[in-house]
């Protein structure tokens, strides 16, 4: 699940991002979260209007930036570097939105995965319909 959402955000790897933690209500200690979580599931739509990505690869730092990196551990110099240049670079962005239903199942839950999936699909059908369908509560 984390790899799928990371790919949607153009992030490599399988370590959960803050985005995954937020939508599923995870704490961020990914090993503990994985141990406590039986299943994660979502249904919905990812709507991308456009994407913008830097095409220069590999990215090359200007010499002045390279020369500004402190040559040894110096907290004050490191702080100045971070204030000047920051800690991250943006290499791409996407404009759009999403409409998701997210389910996190703990191990204490006795609902089988097939039933959970069916419930998620039914809920998605109602939530993402034209509004003319009967509510999930009326259908049960």
TrEMBL record:
One cellular-component annotation, GO: plasma membrane
Residues of the MACPF domain: 1-140
One GO BP annotation of this record: plant-type hypersensitive response
Signal peptide boundaries: none
Pfam family, one: MACPF
Protein name, UniProt field: MACPF domain-containing protein
UniProt source species: Gossypium aridum
């Amino acid at each position: 699940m984390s790899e799928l959402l990371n790919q949607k955000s153009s992030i490599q790897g399988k370590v959960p991002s803050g985005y995954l933690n937020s939508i599923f209500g995870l704490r961020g200690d990914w090993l503990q979260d994985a141990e406590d979580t039986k299943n994660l599931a979502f249904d919905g739509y990812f709507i991308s209007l456009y994407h913008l990505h830097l095409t220069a690869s590999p990215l090359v730092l200007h010499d002045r930036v390279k020369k500004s990196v402190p040559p040894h551990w110096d907290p004050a110099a490191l702080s100045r570097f971070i204030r000047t240049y920051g800690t991250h670079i943006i290499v791409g962005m996407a404009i759009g939105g999403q409409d998701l239903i997210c389910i996190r199942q703990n191990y204490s839950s006795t609902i089988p995965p097939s039933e959970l999936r069916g419930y998620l699909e039914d809920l998605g059908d109602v939530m993402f319909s034209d509004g003319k369908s009967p509510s999930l509560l009326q259908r049960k």
